[in-house]
Structure formats: structure tokens, C-alpha cells
């Protein structure tokens, strides 16, 4: 669902410099890892000292991983290593896998020198986990390309299926609050180990949902990424902001279909979309096969959460670093609306995803993945 939301300038917890706008390409220069190919001889004592230092750092990292896994054997959850295939370049860097699959007995264990050469830091181990939250009407299925690309890059990925969405077995018309709608996200955070942090990503109405989660669990979110997403001010509802912009988006108004499960004399219980306008509204730059997937997978959006006013504080929600990814070919949340939200509440950085429609995980999956990876590496 196209949601057009904004935040006051006062809602940020701490002063940050104006947002830096970036178009597609990564601005972060690769950091060279020192080490020349000289032939200087090193005394054995120095070699032993370096080896001890490497082993000590490796042991500390492995111990931290073990603690995060609840004391289980190392690499049981998320620290296995995916080695390049035999036809890969000899000097290709090894990717760290953070998937939740159980380590096979054939998986080789990390060696101390591998950890050192990868420049692995404990902070990185807390921020290589993406949590993806879909938009209104979508489900976990919409992230299938993003999941594959991130996991290939060595990231751990968790996809949240909000109540009544995707294959979640709940009647959308029966959802009466935002807390009920986002309960799967709250359950995830409650089970997340103390000290562990994630990069929280929200699309569309998922922006309001991750804002709700940021307010409750600010210490568990290292960064928040809004992809063509709603950014509400405290005390504002999604419907209020959307109503301000609906006149400028005739296509959205034409596509919306309201459901009245409690009777026509009662408020709507859900919002659906006219299937004949679905492609033009949400997927105007996306492949036909993805449009077909969406046409049989999308579900109505619960109406009550759209009415609910969020309570967002500077000390909690405002504490989390925010990033915004604009989608310039978006017909659901036009670029002018996105920029209006950004100008009212500037995030740390703004990225412009050229050629992306409202669903960049379909229309620009590679470029979107590149931006997510870049954001994860911003110190």
C-alpha cells in the first residue's frame, strides 16, 4: 500500500548533519588491507608473538559467538564459512555466512589467520543480520531475491511475516490494532539474545511497523532502512498522512477497494487493490513473472493499524540511525511524497535507486542489495 508519511524535525534524538543523497553506486571506498610482499626475514620470536596475538583474537571472537549461541558448540548457528568453489580465483576473499542453517560436519572451521585476514571485529558480528519487514498487502515472499543475494554475501537474514499477511493464518479483517499486526516482529525481538543487534528494513507500510519496533527495542536495532516506506511523526496515524497526499495520487485512489466485514455502516476492516491496476500501481518496472507472483500472493491490508497513531520518542525511536532508499519510478508513493517525508525528518543518508518502482526487490534487486550492503558497512 502506498503510504505517505513524515516526521517532525524535532523527533530526532541527537543532532545529525544534513542527509547525504547518493545515487545507486556505493560511495564507500574499499579499505585496503595492509601487507606487502617483501622478503624481509622475521625472527622466530616475532613470528611466535604474532601467532599468539592472532590466536588470542580468534579465541575472543569464537568465545563471543559461542555466548551468542547460548553456550552451544561454536558455529552451530551462524558462523559457518562458505568457501569459494574450486574454479574460483585463488585469492578471492572468503565470504562469512550468517545463515541459520545447522553446520554440516563437512564444513571446515575458521582458522585464526582467516579471522585476522578478514578484519573481523566484534562490532561487525552484531550488525551482519538483516531483518526484512514487508509492506501492506505483501508478505515474506516478496523478499525472495533479496534473501538470496544477502545470504550469498555472507549475511544472516530473517524475514518477518506480519499477522494476516502472506501465508500467516489469520483473518485480516479481525486485526484490530497495530500491536496485533506487528506481533511477529515483536516476538522476534523478544527472543533476540541480549547484546545482539540487527539491521531493520521496512518497505511501504512496513516503515510504520519497524518504527513501532524501534520504539520498543532501540538497543537491538543498529540501523533502520526505509525503502519507499512510511515515516510517521509521533502522534500521527498512517491514514492522516496518506489523506494529505491522496488527491495527488489518483491511481492509488482508483485502485483501493475497502472491505466492510462488520457491515457497511461500520468503518472498513481492510483495504485491497484492484487487480487490473496492480501492475501500474506497484510493479510498473518489475518483471512479468514477479507481477504474476504478487497477483496471487497479495492479501488485504488491515484497516485498524492504518488508523492508529504512533507514539515515538526521541530517546528510543530517535536513538536509532535511519537511512532512506528512494524509488523514483514509484506510482504508489510518488518521489515527491518521499522527498517530503525526508525533508521533514532527515535521515542520516538518502539513497536514490534509479529506475526503481514501488517494489525495488523485484525491479532492481541487484542495485537494492548493493545499497543494503553499503549501509551495513557504514561505520
Task: Write up what this structure looks like.
- 37% of the residues are buried.
- This protein has 15 helices and twelve strands.
- The protein is 34% helix and 13% strand.
- With 379 residues, the protein is of the alpha/beta class.
- Helix 4 packs across helix 15 (365-377).
Features:
379 residues, alpha/beta, 7-stranded parallel β-sheet, 15 helices, globular, disordered N terminus
List the helices and strands and how they pair.
Blueprint lengths: L19 E4 L20 H25 L12 E2 L12 E2 L15 H6 L4 H4 L3 E5 L10 H9 L3 E5 L17 H4 L1 H9 L6 E6 L2 H11 L4 E7 L10 H8 L4 H6 E4 L10 E4 L4 H5 L5 H10 L3 E2 L1 H4 L13 E6 L8 H10 L4 E4 L7 H4 L1 H13 L2
Parallel strand pairs: 1-12, 4-5, 4-6, 6-7, 7-11, 11-12
Antiparallel strand pairs: 2-3, 8-9, 9-10
Helix pairs in contact: 4-15
Distance N to C terminus? 33 Å
Helix content: 25-40%
Q: Shape from CA axes? A: globular
Order of helices and strands: EHEEHHEHEHHEHEHHEEHHEHEHEHH
What proportion of the residues form beta strands (DSSP E)?
5-15%
Low-pLDDT segments = 2-15, 25-47, 71-123
Mean pLDDT: 77
Number of alpha- plus pi-helical segments:
15
Biggest sheet: strand arrangement: 1-12-11-7-6-4-5
The biggest sheet amounts to: 7 strands, parallel
Amino acid at each position: 500500500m502506498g503510504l505517505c508519511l513524515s516526521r517532525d524535525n524535532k523527533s530526532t534524538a541527537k543532532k545529525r548533519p544534513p542527509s547525504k543523497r547518493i545515487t545507486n553506486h556505493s560511495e564507500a571506498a574499499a579499505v585496503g588491507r595492509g601487507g606487502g610482499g617483501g622478503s624481509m626475514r622475521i625472527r622466530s620470536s616475532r613470528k611466535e608473538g604474532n601467532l599468539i596475538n592472532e590466536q588470542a583474537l580468534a579465541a575472543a571472537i569464537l568465545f563471543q559467538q559461542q555466548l551468542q549461541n547460548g553456550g552451544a558448540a561454536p558455529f552451530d548457528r551462524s558462523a559457518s564459512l562458505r568457501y569459494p568453489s574450486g574454479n574460483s580465483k585463488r585469492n578471492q576473499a572468503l565470504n562469512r555466512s550468517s545463515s541459520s542453517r545447522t553446520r554440516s560436519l563437512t564444513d571446515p572451521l575458521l582458522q585464526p589467520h582467516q579471522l585476522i585476514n578478514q578484519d573481523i571485529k566484534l562490532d561487525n558480528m552484531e550488525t551482519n543480520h538483516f531483518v526484512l519487514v514487508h509492506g501492506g498487502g505483501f508478505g515474506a515472499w516478496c523478499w525472495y531475491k533479496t534473501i538470496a543475494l544477502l545470504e550469498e554475501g555472507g549475511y544472516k537474514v530473517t524475514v518477518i511475516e506480519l499477522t494476516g499477511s502472506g501465508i500467516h493464518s489469520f483473518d485480516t479483517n479481525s486485526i484490530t490494532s497495530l500491536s496485533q499486526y506487528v506481533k511477529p516482529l515483536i516476538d522476534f525481538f523478544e527472543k533476540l539474545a541480549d547484546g545482539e543487534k540487527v539491521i531493520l528494513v521496512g518497505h511501504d507500510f512496513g516503515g510504520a511497523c519497524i518504527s513501532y519496533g524501534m520504539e520498543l527495542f532501540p538497543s537491538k536495532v543498529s540501523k533502520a532502512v526505509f525503502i519507499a516506506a512510511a515515516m510517521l511523526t509521533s502522534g500521527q496515524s498512517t491514514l492522516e498522512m496518506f489523506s494529505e497526499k491522496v488527491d495527488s495520487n489518483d491511481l492509488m485512489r482508483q485502485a483501493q477497494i475497502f472491505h466492510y466485514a462488520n457491515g457497511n455502516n461500520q468503518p472498513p476492516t481492510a483495504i485491497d487493490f484492484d487487480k487490473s491496476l496492480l501492475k501500474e500501481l506497484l510493479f510498473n518496472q518489475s518483471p512479468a513473472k514477479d507481477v504474476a507472483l504478487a497477483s496471487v500472493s497479495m492479501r488485504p491490508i488491515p484497516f485498524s493499524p492504518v488508523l492508529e497513531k504512533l507514539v515515538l520518542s526521541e530517546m528510543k525511536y530517535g536513538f536509532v540511525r535511519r537511512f532512506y532508499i528512494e524509488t523514483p519510478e514509484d506510482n504508489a508513493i510518488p518521489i515527491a511524497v518521499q522527498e517530503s517525508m525526508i525533508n521533514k525528518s532527515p535521515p542520516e543518508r538518502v539513497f536514490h535507486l534509479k529506475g526503481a518502482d514501488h517494489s525495488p526487490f523485484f525491479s532492481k534487486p541487484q542495485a537494492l542489495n548493493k545499497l543494503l550492503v553499503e549501509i551495513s558497512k557504514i561505520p
